[in-house]
């Protein structure tokens, strides 16, 4: 072929690409380029190496873009904004009413009534705490899994147009925003994708300064804080 020092076959292209990759990352990832024929070829690191190279940047001699690789190999893909870290109060209360826990609690009360030894009572109390914590953790994992699934289902239904739940969507933060309106305003501005106007920036700075100067040992309702001269 005119103008080519070598025949531009797929084999030559793959060999040239393999040399580039080997120069940047060593010999292990080259198996992806040459074909992974044997299960004994780099079995330990094959998957990690083959999925963690930016071949385009290597060939062009540019700085590698690894953010997408870090995303798929890391835990960021499993991170969910506002994932609940504890069960709702109603579910916590319902757990205490489970038959097995009620039976254990009644057994402890019976031991106390019979004036059993403190060793026996402490043992039963410890077993009760273990059972309670185990059930709470199990229920929390189920609750979180259901929460994540419902959220992902909603993303599919809304075709990815659903807004992420930011600070103002958190129930605790909504309650705090009723007591401290500045916090609600700050959360709303932080979660907005629209650029802030000059006046909004000034208002944001004012609210932020108010929050920094507040003493949270005592929190007053809006317009009920005592004045300096009172």
Automatic annotation (TrEMBL):
One matching Pfam family: DUF3435
Domain of life according to the entry: Eukaryota
Record-linked InterPro entries: DUF3435
Protein name: Uncharacterized protein
Organism of origin: Aspergillus cristatus
């Amino acid at each position: 072929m005119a103008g080519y020092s070598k025949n531009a076959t797929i084999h030559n292209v793959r060999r040239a690409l393999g040399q580039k990759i080997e120069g940047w990352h060593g010999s292990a990832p080259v198996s992806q380029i040459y074909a992974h024929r044997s299960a004994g070829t780099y079995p330990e690191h094959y998957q990690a190496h083959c999925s963690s190279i930016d071949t385009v940047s290597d060939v062009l001699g540019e700085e590698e873009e690894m953010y997408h690789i870090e995303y798929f190999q890391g835990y960021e893909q499993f991170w969910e904004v506002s994932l609940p870290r504890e069960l709702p109060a109603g579910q916590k209360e319902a757990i205490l009413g489970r038959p097995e826990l009620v039976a254990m609690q009644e057994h402890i009360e019976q031991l106390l009534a019979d004036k059993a030894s403190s060793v026996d009572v402490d043992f039963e109390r410890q077993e009760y705490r273990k059972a309670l914590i185990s059930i709470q953790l199990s229920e929390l994992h189920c609750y979180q899994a259901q929460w994540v699934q419902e959220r992902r289902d909603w993303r599919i239904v809304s075709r990815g147009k659903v807004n992420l739940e930011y600070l103002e969507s958190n129930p605790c933060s909504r309650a705090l925003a009723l007591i401290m309106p500045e916090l609600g305003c700050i959360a709303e501005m932080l979660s907005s994708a629209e650029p802030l106007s000059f006046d909004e920036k000034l208002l944001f700075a004012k609210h932020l300064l108010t929050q920094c100067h507040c003493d949270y040992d005592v929190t007053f309702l809006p317009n009920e804080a005592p004045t300096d001269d009172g």
